Amino acid sequence: MYEAPVLDGVTEPLRSIAELCLAKDPAGRPALAELHRMLLTLPDATASTASTAPTAPVAPGVGDSARPGHQASETRPVPTGGEEGADRTLVGHGRRGRRVLIALAAALVVTGLSITAVKTSMRTESHGNDSSQSTTAPASPSPSPSPSASASASASAATVTPPPKHVPWDYQIGGAYALPDGVRVVSRSHEDAAAPDAYNICNFNAFQAQENAEGDWDSDLLLRDAGGDVVYNEDWGEAVLDIRTDAKRQRIASEVNAWIDECATKGYQAVEPDNYDTFTRFPDHLTAGQATAFMKLLVVHAHAKGLAVAQKNTLELVSERASVGLDFAVVEECGQWNECGEFAAAFDNNVLVVEYTAKGMANACSGWSDTLSIIRRDQDVVLKGASGHLRKTC
């Protein structure tokens, strides 16, 4: 009811389809015809075990609410691939036909069982409340995406383009200015225009409110301590957002996704949701699982818009890179903290490094100048020509 489904081991693009089938709101789950269209986009690689796959159970009532007392055993076998009795209008022939039927059967089972699980959980929850849910205001989930939007999200997840590797780049989240000669990749604030003739990454604060902007958020979406006071990241004066329940994550994502839409409209090719590591600063309130569950919501929406998604810092979650769906990394001070190698391994060297100290820059350049994109910037990443501006390369 309140957490993202655990789909470890399910690879893209089937993973995104399964997640749609597990939407909390039944209206957000794709219909049979929509599933068929999405599954037709699956790569042929998923057919590697099609010829030996066992018969797959198909849950009844995919598009309907589950019957009270409906159990997983209420299934009927459907022959795979070339066996007699398969619906050839739906399935087709050969490798594509076999892998579509297998994937479709799996997706339908997931859908049917998720409906049962949600109905059961809803009945159980009527006897008690989620202890982490704010009592100051009821949380209302954001509207579920339409089936066409769901299909777009699934299809786009495999077609987004990450930035080119090991190229000159610049980090301009403190204010945009003309690109230095040779720069091919740049990260800018979502408030700024994309740079022409470059790969543009759109930066926004996803896990915390901007400084002095907590008033822009519903009061119950701000994280509060046991005394009811708003929790702040004191280093930046930013209120922390409350991502502890699925309902709140959905509402916060609805706001953040509007910035993603803005980035797409401005011509950006990727997004950089900042402060993914907020949970590490407030372990008494937030968990890694809550952070990844929220990030998945942003990834699905960004991919549907054709935008790649960067993991910002957060070495603690590099092992979750594939399950979350992140495409590349933007890392601050991996040279300073001797972390560049771990990010490089996790993201296949598609890592953009920004250092703020001479020591960190020296370490990054000595070990990774032939592999990663590296720059040094001033701590406040101010405009070129402004007091304190600094930009150096290896």
List the helices and strands and how they pair.
Layout: H1 14-21, H2 32-39, E1 56-58, E2 76-78, H3 88-91, H4 94-125, H5 147-156, E3 169-172, E4 185-189, E5 199-205, E6 232-233, E7 238-239, H6 246-265, E8 270-274, H7 278-281, H8 288-304, E9 308-312, H9 321-324, E10 328-332, H10 340-346, E11 351-355, H11 358-368, E12 373-377, E13 391-393
Parallel strand pairs: 3-4, 4-5, 5-8, 8-9, 9-10, 10-11, 11-12
Antiparallel strand pairs: 1-2, 6-7, 12-13
Helix pairs in contact: 1-4, 1-5, 2-4, 2-5, 5-8, 6-8
Comma- or semicolon-separated keywords:
single chain; 394 residues; alpha/beta; TIM Barrel; 2 domains; 9-stranded mixed β-sheet; two-stranded antiparallel sheet; 13 strands; 14% strand
How would you explain this protein's 3D organization?
The protein has 394 residues and is of the alpha/beta class. The protein has two domains: 14-133 and 142-150, no CATH class; 160-393, TIM Barrel. 32% of the residues lie in helices and 14% in strands. Strands 3-4-5-8-9-10-11-12-13 form a nine-stranded mixed sheet. Strands 1-2 form a two-stranded antiparallel ribbon. Strand 10 (328-332), helix 10 (340-346) and strand 11 (351-355) form a beta-alpha-beta unit. The chain is globular, with a radius of gyration of 23 Å. 41% of the residues are buried.
